[in-house]
Design a protein that fits this description.
Layout (H helix, E strand, L loop, with lengths): L9 H9 L6 E2 L5 E7 L2 E2 L3 E4 L2 E3 L1 H12 L3 E7 L2 H10 L4 E7 L2 H6 L8 E10 L24 H12 L16 H9 L5 E5 L4 H7 L4 E3 L4 E9 L5 H17 L2 H10 L9
Parallel strand pairs: 2-6, 2-7
Antiparallel strand pairs: 1-2, 3-4, 4-5, 7-11, 8-9, 8-10, 8-11
Length: 271
């Protein structure tokens, strides 16, 4: 069927607000229109360009939608924290934000059986730092401060809990430095290393600014999932999305998108 893409109008948002608590609209043909929140400024994961949301996850959503005749996805650009809040209240039917599975999220939301990609946690270091290849090598090193919440903070805390003989000292900061600024602090020698997922556009920054920064192999692999508003009706949606993702993996289309946006096939790390 024909698909309509782009931003929802103000009138549409008002209508969707009236249809909160996960009550997606259904047309006379029985097609449910679902509001899906994606990041508007997280290139290459998802970003807005020329009035259109594009990137890895929007392209996956479009491929999934093509396979699901009973649904139509409307994509809206929403910041990460606001997206999860909106999903909690039913303002959004689904969010695609490159999110990891956790016990809390598995309890609050419906997650497809199939992941839609992977966030590869890597260490960013100076090109002459031959002594840093894995997490154990960061003991005694100066780490770029991480935000006091989120995936990197939780990853380091889990590492320290599980590796008491190789505990990593680190600081937190709400300074809001860009990824480019954080890598410059490593390049300048202020810090020895930066820990980040590699799907946030760092390679493009390194190449465009000719930074003397290199990355390690993944030190942890976090499969990423769509999060769906939890109600009985959406259990069928979850199963349908799982089936569509499995087909897209088998067809090689998700690997193609990974190569297009990340320069590598992240699915080689999730098998």
């Amino acid at each position: 069927m024909n698909k309509k893409w782009g931003f929802i109008t103000l009138a549409g948002l008002l209508f969707l607000g009236a249809c909160s608590d996960g009550e997606a609209s259904t047309d006379e043909d029985g097609v449910r229109t679902l509001t899906v929140a994606v990041p508007p400024t997280s290139k290459p994961l998802s970003w807005e360009e020329n009035g259109k949301l594009t990137g890895y996850e929007p392209d996956i959503l479009r491929l999934v939608d093509e396979k699901l005749e009973d649904y139509e996805f409307d994509l809206v650009g929403v910041a990460d924290s606001a997206a999860e809040i909106g999903l909690d209240t039913g303002k959004y039917d689904m969010i695609a934000q490159g999110l990891f599975k956790s016990e809390e999220r598995a309890e609050k939301y419906l997650l497809p059986d199939e992941n839609n990609g992977a966030s590869l946690m890597r260490i960013y270091k100076r090109s002459d730092s031959d002594d840093i290849e894995n997490m154990k090598d960061l003991v005694g090193k100066k780490i770029v401060p991480t935000t006091p919440t989120g995936g990197v903070f939780n990853f380091i805390m889990d590492w320290n809990e599980n590796n008491p003989d190789h505990e990593i000292e680190f600081q937190t900061s709400d300074a809001g430095l860009s990824y480019a600024d954080r890598m410059r602090e490593v390049e300048s020698g202020k810090y020895d290393a930066l820990i980040l997922p590699s799907n946030l556009g760092q390679n493009e920054i390194i190449e465009s600014q000719d930074m003397q920064i290199v990355t390690t192999e993944p030190v942890e692999v976090f499969p990423t999932y769509f999060m769906i508003y939890k109600n009985e009706e959406n259990e069928a949606l979850r199963d349908d999305i799982s089936e569509a993702l499995a087909e897209l993996k088998e067809e090689g289309k998700l690997s193609e998108l990974s190569l297009k946006y990340y320069g590598e096939d992240v699915f080689q790390f999730t098998e």
